[in-house]
UniProtKB/TrEMBL annotation:
It holds the Pfam family AHSA1. SUPFAM superfamilies: Bet v1-like. It comes from Planotetraspora kaengkrachanensis. InterPro entries: ASHA1/2-like_C, START-like_dom_sf. Residues 15-135 form the Activator of Hsp90 ATPase homologue 1/2-like C-terminal domain. This is ATPase. Belongs to the AHA1 family.
């Protein structure tokens, strides 16, 4: 990620082992179940790609796609996301730290503007809320 810009970092501790959290991010059916996503395709390997249609509150459908830059099983994902109007994809880093039967997850991104950062941070909090709820029942 760029070292210049507007960044955010979100950290939560989840009541699930790292392997279960990893599967939630890397198995298409699992991801779709908690992320409010349809038509999920995940090829979670360096150089692999992903695509999905996010269904946001209110019912709007937003197609998203990108790639995987770094993949370290049960520990780290660095993903790109193609953003219309941007020359370069946005990057998101997902770090997992096993804490016994719990997992600390950290999401981080950097953007060119405060507005982009604020929108992405809101979306990431929404994702983490969905992930937390999914893991509580999965």
């Amino acid at each position: 990620m760029s070292t210049v810009g507007y960044d955010y970092t979100l950290t939560r501790t989840l009541d699930a082992p790292a392997g279960k959290v990893w599967a939630a991010w890397t198995v298409a059916d699992d991801y779709g179940a908690w992320a409010g996503a349809e038509e999920v395709v995940l090829d979670a390997r360096p150089g692999g790609s992903w695509s999905t249609v996010m269904v946001i509150p209110g019912g709007a459908r937003v197609p998203l796609s990108g790639g995987y830059i770094e993949v370290v099983e049960n520990k780290r994902l660095v993903m790109s996301m193609d953003v219309p109007g941007r020359d370069e994809p946005a990057l998101m880093t997902v770090d997992l730290a096993a804490e016994g039967e719990r997992t600390r997850i950290t999401l981080a991104q950097t953007f060119d503007t405060a507005e982009e950062r604020d929108q992405a941070e809101q979306g990431s909090n929404f994702l983490l809320d969905g992930l937390t709820a999914y893991l509580a029942t999965a």
